[in-house]
Amino acid sequence: MVAASKLRSAQVRTENSRGLWQPFAALLGDSPSVDVKKNVIITISSDKGLCGGINSTSVKFSKALHKITSGPDKETKYVIVGEKGKVQLVRDSKKDIELTIAEMQKNPLNYTQVAVIADHILKNVEYDALRIIFNKFRSVVQFYPTVTTVLSPEIVERESESGGKLGDLDSYETEGAETKGEILQNLAEFQFSCVLYSAALENACSELGARMSAMDSSSRNAGQMLDRLTLTYNRTRQASITTELIEIISGASALTG
Questions:
Q1: Number of neighbours of residue 177 by Cβ within 10 angstroms
Q2: Which three-class secondary structure state does DSSP give residue 174?
């Protein structure tokens, strides 16, 4: 019931946040297959448990992406958001963990809070591509592991000049005296904060839905277990009473006989 009440408000904020990153997807695209040397995988997980396998799914996708993006001349690091993701990844990937962030969801998420965290990440990691892994909310019982890629300004400019999906970037008009590099730098920072905010909300909403389903399943299982134990107790009690009655009747028959 608690998760259901929290889910309703989180779902509204999640749906509203999707309008933040969608313009960036149209302007800069989302290129998960781009080949770069420095990859940073940002795994978003929860700080609390009892929410099914939502965190395990994010960790599995993170490990698979790490294998894909790693190589002899490539470097792939982790930035972990949430205690549950940290606990799982630190077992066999401790040397690859660059930064960990906990208790981001201690208070209701807002853009200002996430923007500060995004700025902290950008100042402490070197990257060519940031790959954010989160669970995208679809319904209470459906959420999908999703990867969103945010490229560095240098890689964006390289892709734009090579005539790829970003080849039409120069067709847009810009205002102000900023150079193209400065504009791309500002766009990359703002894009990352918007994507991280939306991803955190999507994952939080998926977490609440998964927790509600897990608690509902736990309640049903507990009820079934209680019914079975009650039935076993009643049968045992009835057998004990029957045995005592037989003994009393047999003793009375022996005395009268």
A1: 6
A2: coil
